[in-house]
């Protein structure tokens, strides 16, 4: 019986682990379109999630001026 509980606990910990490294959607801002940035260029927008963590969000300018999400980097709280 203890083996079943230990196995269930291990599975739940492993299943939750990828969530710790997931992007923070609350730190990705709503974006519109750009008219003066060259197509294919990269734009960085700073964001803050609901817990106060700061992020640099990188977007690529698409053909129609819309921003396509590329990457997110969390900044240290120093």
UniProtKB/TrEMBL annotation:
Keywords: Signal
Organism: Martelella mangrovi
Domain of life: Bacteria
Annotated protein name in UniProt: DUF5666 domain-containing protein
Cleaved signal peptide residues: 1-22
UniProt key word Signal: yes
């Amino acid at each position: 019986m203890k083996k079943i509980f230990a196995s269930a606990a291990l599975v739940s910990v492993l299943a939750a682990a990828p969530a710790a490294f997931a992007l923070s959607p609350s730190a990705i801002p709503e974006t519109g379109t750009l008219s003066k940035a060259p197509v294919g260029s990269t734009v960085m927008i700073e964001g803050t999630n609901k817990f106060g963590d700061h992020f640099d969000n990188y977007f690529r300018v698409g053909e129609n001026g819309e921003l396509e999400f590329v990457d997110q980097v969390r900044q240290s709280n120093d």
